């Protein structure tokens, strides 16, 4: 499964684990990288020293490439951007903002920069400012989302840029990976399926919610505020959608979800917390190790792509 992305990042398989806040910590990132994919630490709004510690812990567990996902609207983004250089992180993915101001220091240090985008316009802009690749994330993904589906977004971004494109959102198995490849992507990024792996440190209640989920169980909150988020339905999403319908203020809605992801991931409160997951949650039926999951994905994809001439 050699593609431009495996060559660019020095990884065995074109499978990247999403940089999910509170979920993507060093145990998971190291396990994915060790299994031949690219593991990511989700920096989110974490304190810079926590990010530094996570990077060092990954290095103790694997000598393979890994990355950090930086949320650019975080108040700590400037410091985390420097830590990525200081600690010799090989790959950075970015979300919730524009990474242009960090491009020079990252590129000078040899860091591969891969922004996550939800539109063609942003993909073109990222290519112009020096991105090495693009993650095109469809609305099927968990957490913060755009409007276009993966099926329509990926080919349009592939046609618009000359750098490699990574497909994200709605991918759970080899069929999804093969479909992404045929749409023009050169790798995939997956989040929800990795949440349920044995190395993932999330609360068992969170894992059980995903394993029990059906196809109709995800909800999108925050459309009225311009910050849509996909999570599994529970008391919190029900209350949020009711308040949205009644025209509640942004402040009132924010108060309802404040610390919601931590509540679900760390404390296991899957009733009032935010159980972020993609629409593929209904396809995730068992907990396995990262190695077992990646081997299964590769086996399924290979059997479908055989004879297509896709692999170089």
Structural class based on helices, strands and sheet pairing: alpha/beta
Characterize the largest beta sheet: strand count, sense, and whether it forms a barrel. Answer: 8 strands, parallel
Total number of helices: 14
CATH superfamily of the largest domain: Aldolase class I
InterPro entries: Aldolase_TIM, Enoyl_ACP_red-II_put, NMO
Keywords: Flavoprotein, FMN, Monooxygenase, Oxidoreductase
Pfam family, one: NMO
Organism: [Clostridium] nexile
Distinctive features:
single chain; 312 residues; alpha/beta; TIM Barrel; 2 domains; 8-stranded parallel β-sheet; 3-stranded antiparallel β-sheet; 14 helices; 41% helix
Q: Topology of this structure?
A:
Elements: H1 4-9, E1 15-17, H2 26-34, E2 39-44, H3 48-61, E3 66-71, H4 77-86, E4 91-95, H5 103-108, E5 112-117, H6 120-128, E6 134-137, E7 143-144, H7 150-160, E8 165-168, H8 174-182, E9 187-190, H9 192-195, H10 204-212, E10 218-221, E11 229-232, H11 235-245, H12 250-257, H13 260-265, H14 290-305
Parallel strand pairs: 1-9, 2-3, 3-4, 4-5, 5-6, 6-8, 8-9
Antiparallel strand pairs: 7-11, 10-11
Helix pairs in contact: 2-3, 8-14, 11-12
Protein model, in words:
- Keywords: Flavoprotein, FMN, Monooxygenase, Oxidoreductase.
- The chain is of the alpha/beta class and 312 residues long.
- The protein contains 14 helices and eleven strands.
